[in-house]
Amino acid sequence: MAGSADTLFMPITNGEIPLGEGQWLYLGARAIDGGFPDELRAALVCEQSMRGAYLDLQMRGMNVSPRVDNTDRFSGALILIGKHRGENETMIARASNMVSAGAPILIAGDKTSGVAPLRKRIAAFAEIDGSLAKYHATVFWLRNSVDFASHFSSAKTSPQGYQTSAGMFSAEKIDKGSALLAEHLDENIRGDIADFGAGWGYLSAELLNRFSPRTVHLYEAHCASLEAAKENLSDYDKGQISYYWHDLTREAVGKKFDWIIMNPPFHEGRKTEPQLGVQFIEVAARSLKPKGGLLMVANVTLPYEKTLQQNFSKVNQLARRDGFKLLKAQL
């Protein structure tokens, strides 16, 4: 089904903007409906930090990395924005620094991404060359002629003592669900531990700061968050910590743990998607040693108890606060 990624490429595919020579930077990259024409496939250098979307592009033979840091200037940039204003502005500023002066920059997003107010903000300091709307999304384009970073003012603070950046889950403060889970970590959570959906490492940091697990394994689908976790846990790392850029909903874990801790995601974009948590629970059950345990936190409205009871012999609610519930399950 066509979407905002297809809209992003329309000015090129309909001939309004020539592809020309050289390579194009594609940030927030996602596949398009029907796949990329050969000419586009050869020209694009894609960046995608989310493991699932990265794998989709890789399977289509695209040149894709979780982070592009080329020193050579690109001939143009295509930016597919998401729901985080700060992350969108960072992508645009980076693209401006990575493409040639006067080169085209195309920016697109669906109606829920904030593309309309973003265009308005940019139009206040730069000339917009054109725009079009299709597939419930809008693309606009301009020439690389201004210092975008100096015009964007999205302020971001990180939780004290941690490194985070815009676009990461709970980048500016510890979320209440994770805080609830952290309070209930104790010396019984020991042995080989996995942190599913580890983000930038808060729960693992709490575990390592207070206890001495034999090993800790962080699984996270957002590469930038995982890189931040490495920095945030560096003081604790004595060789017992492992990091996996991993999509738990589609890649096998291949290890067994004594305990798994997790605050699973429950949004796909802006849409609530409880099935993500269900998949995390099912993977957790398959990834535990006999008599292993799961400690997870979830929004009180999410109906995970049935899945837990289907996969574990014992399920208990340990706490309930601030709209979250803490659940413990054992095989």
From TrEMBL:
GO function terms (MF aspect): N-methyltransferase activity; nucleic acid binding; S-adenosylmethionine-dependent methyltransferase activity
GO biological process: methylation; rRNA processing
Record flagged with keyword Cytoplasm: yes
Domain Methyltransferase small: 164-328
InterPro entries, per database record: DNA_methylase_N6_adenine_CS (IPR002052), RsmC/RlmG (IPR046977), SAM-dependent_MTases_sf (IPR029063), Small_mtfrase_dom (IPR007848)
SUPFAM superfamilies: S-adenosyl-L-methionine-dependent methyltransferases
Alphabetical list of PROSITE patterns matching this protein: N6_MTASE (PS00092)
UniProt keyword terms in alphabetical order: Cytoplasm, Methyltransferase, rRNA processing, S-adenosyl-L-methionine, Transferase
Protein name stated in the entry: Methyltransferase small domain-containing protein
Species whose genome carries this gene: Ahrensia marina
